[in-house]
Amino acid sequence: MKYGFFPGCTLESAAEELMISTKKVASALGIELIELEGWTCCGASHIQDVDDFLGVAVNARNIALGEKFDAPILTVCNTCTLMLRTAKDRLDHDENLKDKVNEGLQQANLEYRGTSEVTHLLWALIRDYGLENLRKKVKRPLTGLKVANFYGCHIVRPPKIMGFENHMNPQSMEMVAEVLGAESVEFDQRLACCGFHAVFPAEKEVMGMTRINCLSPKAAGADCLVTPCPLCQMQLDMYQPDAQKGCDENITMPILHLPQLIGLALGFEPEELAINRHIMDAIPTLKKTLTFA
Fold first, then answer.
1. Which helix (H) or strand (E) holds 33?
2. In sequence order, which ranges of the chain are alpha helices (DSSP H)?
3. How many CB atoms lie within 10 A of CB 70?
4. Distance of CA 127 to the CA centre of its chain
5. Strand order in the sheet with 146-149
6. What is the mean pLDDT of the chain?
7. What does pTM read for this prediction?
């Protein structure tokens, strides 16, 4: 299996641990990730509000870079997936827009053709790799580990663009957790917004959301929360100490990236997956349930 890999900005900066764990997991599963040479920021769900055409054009360029490999383009970020798929949907249904974008791309010897699908690691594991094949790779079943699966908005909405599963009741995260041997807990905030994109203009409100998003899985008995989006992970992990301020109840909740959870089941140590880089230390909680070297 081969994919053109679009890491997105956070994997080279604030969420480098996701880059480390993604590459570890992909290699262990025999998945070839070829990073797109010269990729740029997807616009992070904000660029279209400033310049709509530019938002389409930069992602047409990113997709065109991936089309060189004649392979699907894979991301590990909900927002990157949404931005790339939104651009692809508009270009594939508007020949005039496609021609106008390609006039610009021609200056860089690129052309958007629309030949590469855009997918997310979570979807690729289910649709392309296969859950039973993933199950065969498990070396350390996550037996006894209770996980809260936090989807994040952009991997399920809008359904017209994302469309992998029922956006009202997605089950992909629970399916992967079951294969890894973990127990998924039911909690109210499973499909809630993390607030990442609103933290600067509405910090007070977003800190309140972070408290609720941590307390909800905690009340359900979760050992940790896992998400397929680096922006959700950053919001819930990095801002958790700020969200704790002014709250009498202890909101502590370890927050893992999806590839880190998979990597634990594949037999990697927490440090190999850079779990020790998180603000909220997840390792003591993991050691209560799992055995490490």
1. strand 32-35
2. 16-29, 47-50, 52-67, 78-92, 95-105, 121-124, 131-137, 172-180, 203-219, 230-238, 240-244, 258-265, 283-289
3. 10
4. 16
5. 183-184, 146-149, 224-227, 255-257
6. 96
7. 0.96
Tokens 């296969």 correspond to what residue? 130
**Contact call for residues 11 and 226 (beta carbons, < 8 A):** no
Question: Do 18 and 76 touch, CB atoms closer than 8 A?
Answer: yes
In one-letter notation, the amino acid at residue 225 is: L
Cβ pair 81, 161 in contact under 8 A: no
pLDDT band at 45 (very low <50, low <70, confident <90, very high): confident
- Residue 49 scores a pLDDT above 90: no
3-state SS assignment for residue 107: helix
Contact status, residue 15 vs residue 230, Cβ threshold 8 Å = yes
pLDDT tens per residue, range 191-224:
999 999 999 899 999 999 999 999 999 999 999 9
Over its C-alpha atoms, the chain yields an Rg (Å, rounded) of 19
DSSP state of 69: T
Helix (H) or strand (E) holding 146: strand 146-149
Asked whether 262 and 38 are in contact (CB, 8 A), the reply is no
How far apart are alpha carbons 187 and 218 in whole angstroms? 9
For residue 154 the two structure tokens come to 């952009």
The reported pLDDT for the residue numbered 167 is 97
CB atoms within 10 A of CB 39: 21
